[in-house]
Amino acid sequence: MDVAHCYLEGNADAVEFCPHDDYQHVLAASTYTLQEGEQPIRAGSISLFDVNAEKGNLELFHRVNTAGIFDIKWSTVGANAAPLLAQADADGYLRIYSLEGSSNEEKPRGGFLNEVSGERISSSMCLFLDWNPLATSISVGLSDGSVSIITIAESGIEKLQEWKAHDFELWTTCFDIHQPQLVYTGSDDCKFSCWDIRDSPSERVFQNSKVHKMGVCCIAKSPTDPNTILTGSYDEYLRVWDLRSISRPVNEASICLGGGVWRIKPHPFVSGLVLAACMHNGFAIVKIGEKKPDVVETYSQHGSLAYGAAWQRAKISPGGKSKSTTVATCSFYDRLLRLWMPKTDICCI
């Protein structure tokens, strides 16, 4: 069910709902636009929206212009601190913003992003970022195949270590939420790897180079099953891995989603349910079952590359109009941001 939509001022590539209590109505959307010429400019922006799906509201309340952005992520909830938004951009910068105001208690709800730290961590482009469970560190994937581990402190951000993890662009990196000393990486070189960052330089725990037929775009650890991790690839497959033998994970199941699997987002409350952005084939909701993954629902109301996808974390209200969860999605060239609710009763999956 479509709820609302709008067009951004640049090519839309990432959307993220704030997961923190009192801020779960806040949606961030980022853009990356290449302005060609003798000296090309990679421009971007972050837009903040106030979302109320039951009222059909998608209201812009703040925007900041930036370099071209590849990824944004809100800090994890376990940090017990005010929400922070991290940005990975084409100029090699990692920037951290605090969200000022904008809580549910304020009327009208507004707020703004305040940059609290920003450092150029690489001469390469920053392609992806992930917070550790305590929001004290960030892993950053770089266009030269390296990964950086950044620590977040009151004094600013500091690079703890950086190493050449892959041969080509490192599209994705992911902390293990159950064992945060482990960091997973995936790259255009078709390799899926794991590293133990307690060592410096980090020790490689495993590397699988045989299963993915094209580049690895995204990695997501199951929030409820410590032995399960998911990968998505340009080869159009979402794969389920068994990590019980951490040095040799087993690809136990896979499903073709008909387009390159650019993002995977586990549902915040429903175990085994994931939202996937499938590039040339829209978006899909997939149930990771005991035997094999199944597509529960697809969404094809975008006319361009499906890149950004996010679940709203707000609890499903039994007395509300819908028993589903609000979803935000965005597509690249048509600059389209959409809010919708799955037709499927999420509570019954």
UniProtKB/TrEMBL annotation:
Listed EC numbers: 3.1.1.97
Gene3D superfamilies found in the cross-reference section: YVTN repeat-like/Quinoprotein amine dehydrogenase
Reaction(s) catalysed (UniProt annotation): diphthine methyl ester-[translation elongation factor 2] + H2O = diphthine-[translation elongation factor 2] + methanol + H(+)
Keywords: Hydrolase, Repeat, WD repeat
SMART domains (alphabetical): WD40
Record pathway: Protein modification; peptidyl-diphthamide biosynthesis
PANTHER family: DIPHTHINE METHYLTRANSFERASE (PTHR46042)
Family note: Belongs to the DPH7 family.
Name by which UniProt lists this protein: methylated diphthine methylhydrolase
Organism lineage string: Eukaryota, Viridiplantae, Streptophyta, Embryophyta, Tracheophyta
